[in-house]
Structure formats: structure tokens, C-alpha cells
């Protein structure tokens, strides 16, 4: 044993192999890497939106475009509906963390309850977005189409620009559509996790790490919405 | 190797989540809600009354948005309680995004200037 040189001794530092140096489980770190790449995709869309908006002399005023609450009032309530949508998404993010917290305590019933709440929140958000889209579509906005010239005046504070309105319409539907697609995927993942939790899969496995991984994705969707909300509805 | 993984998983499932209790979750929720309410007050009360310029308003919106993003990533996504290495690996990448945003806004501003000078 004395002949054992220093080099042959087993190293135990975090980066000397045999374990996760960040002590993060493999699936979780892969989810983080995916979310990072997804952040770049979203930022490319938002960066293009910002550059377009900065280069134009005039742009549709969000307070004038988004002032309806579908089914209640058609005009005169700027930002109220999107406020409700934001609240729903933040709320569903909270129920997701509560599901993760319950999973940490191995409380199956609570995990199932909070996952159901999260899924309901996701569907409510998607429903609101569908109403918002159909409202804008009825006003005449869609990919490649804008309201007629006499109606278009209502959406601008200053001079009217067809190019700006067209860019706004294309970018609004593309970016909120891509976000809505993410929400929809998230709801599907949540449903799969809910079924697995109800079947007792995680209980047998001994941990609820899958809930955490899907939770990361769900919070990311919420995170993107925070930015979409600011850049489309507030700025 | 697989034994190590199992060990890590168990370790992870037990120790690392001590940081986020139910009361902390609700606290973060009320912070997020509060920031959103402040944004609405700026949008619906302060800006229409002309108490603040639009540029100042936009800067405030962006700062508040970044603050909200911080709370979501740090607490809900649990990054605050991860190892520094992971925080850096994920955080530094966002500097590139900020760099791209600044680049393209400068480009947009140049286009704007160019088109107003030479219509």
C-alpha cells in the first residue's frame, strides 16, 4: 500500500467524475439546457419585434388595440383582460410550486390536487388567449391582414402607417402564438404527470422529480409571458 | 455509476428543497402580483395623466419586468438554491441575449434616424 502514489488516490472533488458536479439530477439539467435554448428562440422573436418597433415612426397604441373584455365590453377597458390572463398564469405557476413542494413531502393527494389546479389554470389561459385572438381577428387583424383604412385610424395615436400595423399584426400573432403553443405543450405534459402521479408511479419510484422537471418548463412559460406582456401590452 | 446516480437523486430529493416553504411561495406570489399592480398603475394612471414621460415609463416597465423574471427564476425555478457553477452557466448566457437586444435596438434607432433624414 505504501507504493500507492499520490496520483493513484481517488479524488473526491466535485469535478473529478463519478457524480454530478452541480449535484443536479440529469433530467433536470437537460431541462435547463433546453430552456436556455428556448430562451434564445423567444428572444430572437422579441429582438426582431423591438428592432421593428424602434425603426418605425409610428406604431399601433396597445391601449387602443387591447381594450376589450370579450363577452363583457368591447371598448373602454384597456389592459384589463390581459391583466386577468397574467394573473391566471402567475397563479398557475404558484400552484405548480405548491405541487413540487407537496411532492417533496411525498404527499400524493396534495400533488394531484395542485396539478389539477395547474392544468385548469393552463386551460383558462389558453381559453382567454383564444378569445383575444378571435376578437382581434374580428377587428381585421391576422397574419398579413389589417383593418380597413377608416377603422385603422382608431388604433393609432399619431399618423397611421399600414406597414407598422402589418408588422404589429404579424409579430403579435407569431409571438403570442408561439407562446400559446408552449402553454399547450405544458398543459399536455402536466396532464401526463398528473396521470403518473395518480397511478402512484412516483410513489413507487420514491421521488417526485418528474414534477420538478415539468415545473421548470411551466415556470419558463410564465417567465416568457412576463416579457411578452411587457413588450406587447405595456411599452 | 448508476449507484451514484441513485445516491444523488435521493440526496437531492431530501436536502435541497429546504429553502422554499409554503409561506415563502406565497410571499413570492404577492411580490409578483404587487409588481404587476404597479405596472398597471403606471400604464393606467400615471402615464395618461402625464406625470411621467413615456421613456421613463418604458425604462420602469423593463426594470420591473426584470425584477419579476428574477423572482420567478430564483425562487419558482429554484436557481437561487443551486450550486454557483450552474447559476453562472445559465446566467452568463443571458448576457448574450441582452447584447443582441441592445445591438438590434441600436440598429432600429439608426434605421429610424436614416429614414427621417432621407425620406
CATH architecture of chain A: Up-down Bundle
Tell me the number of structural domains of chain B.
2
Calculate the mean pLDDT score of chain B and round it: 81
Unreliable parts of chain A:
none
Rg from alpha-carbon coordinates of chain A: 23 Å
Shape of chain A: elongated
- According to CATH, the homologous superfamily of chain A is Cytochrome c oxidase, subunit III, four-helix bundle
SS-derived structural category of chain B: mainly alpha
Strand percent estimate of chain A: under 5%
Q: What percent of residues of chain B adopt helix (DSSP H or I)? A: over 70%
Q: For the terminal residues of chain B, how far apart are their CA atoms?
A: 67 Å
Helical coverage of chain A, percent range: 55-70%
- The radius of gyration over CA of chain B amounts to 21 Å
- Largest β sheet strand count, sense and barrel closure of chain A: none
Low-confidence stretches of chain B: 1-17
Mean pLDDT of chain A: 90
Structural class of chain A: mainly alpha
**H and E string of chain B:** HHHH
The structural domain count of chain A equals 1
What percent of residues of chain B are in strands?
Answer: under 5%
Would you give an account of this structure?
The complex is a heterodimer of chains A (235) and B (119). Chain A has helices at 26-55, 62-65, 80-104, 108-139, 149-152, 162-198, 201-205, 209-234. Chain A is mainly alpha-helical. In chain A, α3 packs antiparallel against α4, α4 packs antiparallel against α6 (162-198) and α6 packs antiparallel against α8 (209-234). The radius of gyration of chain A is 23 Å and the shape is elongated. By secondary structure, chain B is mainly α. In chain B, α2 runs antiparallel to α3 (54-76). The longest helix of chain B is centred in the C-terminal third of the chain and has 34 residues, at 84-117. The model of chain B is unreliable at 1-17 (pLDDT under 50). Chains A and B meet through α1, α3 and α8 of A and α1, α2, α3 and α4 of B. Chain A: It is a multi-pass membrane protein. Chain A: Keywords: Cell membrane, Membrane, Transmembrane, Transmembrane helix. Chain A: GO terms for molecular function: cytochrome-c oxidase activity.
